[in-house]
Design goal:
The chain has 187 residues and is α+β, with helices and mostly antiparallel strands. Helices cover 33% and strands 34% of the residues. The radius of gyration is 24 Å and the shape is flat. The two termini are 35 Å apart.
Length: 187
């Protein structure tokens, strides 16, 4: 049965912060001038979008940001308050479309659009687990392939360890990695 979201256009959320040193471009690594960093403004906008809809989502569901198209048009110095606002424009299936803006105490500093997709919490957890297992598999393959002197020690995903002899050379290392994957899949 398809998920039906009862989110009406016009739902609005806000998020605020007072710009501190930790929010500046040099601290974040996005520039050298001591003003609000664009990534921090974006984070504030996403927090506003969450504030607009998260409490209204069905149980066991959450939203994930999938698209953000904003301009950062004015600099905000340390000590000034910034407020982000996200308003639901429409909902299509599982996708929520927002109009977003950020303002400091004097002017508009950013605006644009944002999209979030609603997923079941267990689906996002399963996807994250799958990606983590894929990364672990690549790490194991890499360790086996780079083993010095022909001997590699690999740790399986289940936490078991096994010593395997690996001949020097690219083809032998790839064969050993393939064999390790096969052993892990069979376990």
């Amino acid at each position: 049965m398809p998920l039906v979201l009862n989110l009406r256009p016009g739902l609005t959320g806000t998020a605020e912060l007072v710009v501190g040193e930790q929010h500046t471009a040099p601290r974040i690594g996005s520039g050298r001038i001591r003003v609000l960093a664009t990534p921090v403004m974006i984070n504030l906008i996403e927090a506003a979008a969450l504030a607009a809809v998260e409490q209204s989502l069905p149980e066991e569901h959450q939203s994930l940001g999938t698209r953000l198209d904003v301009t950062h048009i004015a600099a905000t110095p340390v000590g000034m308050r910034v407020r982000a606002t996200a308003e639901v424009e429409r909902v299509e299936g599982r996708t929520i479309y927002f109009r977003v803006r950020a303002e400091d105490e004097h002017e508009l500093i950013g605006q644009g659009t944002h999209e979030r997709v609603v997923v079941t919490s267990s689906a996002s957890t399963a996807a994250s687990t799958r990606r983590l297992l894929e990364k672990l598999e690549r790490l194991v393959e890499d360790r086996i392939a780079r083993a010095p002197g022909g001997a590699a020690r690999s740790t399986g995903i289940e936490g078991r360890s096994a010593s395997r002899g690996v001949r020097s050379g690219t083809n032998s290392s790839r064969e050993a990695a393939r064999a390790a994957r096969g052993r892990q899949a069979a376990a």
